[in-house]
Every structure is written in structure tokens, then in C-alpha cells.
Amino acid sequence: MALIFMKQKKLKELFESYFEPLCNYIVNKVGDIDKARDIVTDAFRYLYHEAKGIENMPMEKLVELVLTKTLEGCIVHFQEKDDKYESSDKTPNNIQNFERSVEEIMIEKELHDLMNKVNPNFTEKEKVAFNLFFSGVETKIAAEIMGISRSTYRTHKSIAIKKIRNALFKSGWGFSA
GO biological process annotations for this chain's record (predicted)? Predict the structure, then answer.
């Protein structure tokens, strides 16, 4: 019973720290927030139901495992698409791309942690717009993902950036509002 509790506690901590950053990263690869959430959810589901010895693994190993499973899910997604998607350079299909993907996900996590710390009080649309912007998604695609016009996307993004700047300033980061 204690092992099950330890496993659940570790997975909860991992989920709270990495779910949103992973989704933000994967949506940039697959272009669909629902598909990104499905891929990341499947990686966590794998850890919970199939991975052995989680309760004894160090957190770094769990992070590596969830990143690997998430990126595998991304590759499977592209393999299920037609040929134009299979050859996409967005798919992390080799070691160099995998390492770069891990670095990008870690940056996403650091941003996520910083946002939680300074709490800019985003609306849901501002949060999505900022995450898409930070992930490097083009304005046209970001607007399509959000189901809004480009102009509305730019407005949400601009408001989010102003809120971040103000929150960072208030938290002592030294930016001017």
C-alpha cells in the first residue's frame, strides 16, 4: 500500500510540473491542442499503468521516461498521417532532435514555473495565446488553433505580455512596467 502511495505521489508531482509545458511544446508540433493533450495524457497513463519500479526511480529518470513516451506519441501521430506529415522535420525522429526537444521542453517547464510564481492572472485565452507565442507558433496557425481571428490572437498575446511584464516587475525582476 505504501508503494502505491509513493508511486501516486511521484506521478502527481511529475504531472503538476510537466503536463502543461509538454502540452505547450507538443501543440507546436502537431498543431492541435486536443491531440497534444491526448499524446501527453497517454505518456502519463503509460507511467501509471505499465512502467515498473516508479516508486524507486529518481525524479530525473521519471522526467526522462515521460519525455520519451511523449515524443514517441508525437512520432506515432505523424506516422498515422499521410506522407506529407510523415516526412515533417517537426517530428523528433533522431537523437539530435530528441535532445533538442528535451531542451525545449525544459525551457517550457521553466517558463511554466515562472508563470506560476509571478501569477500574471491570465484569462484562459491569454494563457493559450502566450503559450503559442512562446512556443514559436506563427500568428496565422495560432489563431487557427484558438479558433479566432489573427487580430484577436494578437490582442490576447499583447495583453498577456503586458501582464507578464507587470507581474515580473511587481515580483522584483526589475523590468519596467
Answer: DNA-templated transcription initiation
Q: What letter does residue 54 receive in the DSSP assignment?
A: G
Q: Whole-model pTM?
A: 0.55
Same domain, 128 and 88: no
Q: What are the cell numbers at 102?
A: 528535451
DSSP code at position 108: H
Is the C-alpha dihedral spanning 23, 24, 30, 31 positive or negative?
positive
Same domain for 93 and 169?
no
For residue 59, give the nearest of 110, 20, 111, 13 by alpha carbon: 13
Which pLDDT score is estimated for 174? 56
- Of the chain, the end-to-end C-alpha distance in Å amounts to 51
User: How many structural domains compose the chain?
Assistant: 2
Examine the pLDDT at 51 and tell me if it is beyond 70: yes
* 9 and 61 share one domain: yes
Contact 164, 120 (CB under 8 A): yes
pLDDT (mean) for 103-127: 77
Indicate if the pLDDT at residue 85 is higher than 60.
Answer: no
Number of CB atoms found within 10 A of residue 153's CB? 25
pLDDT of residue 97: 65
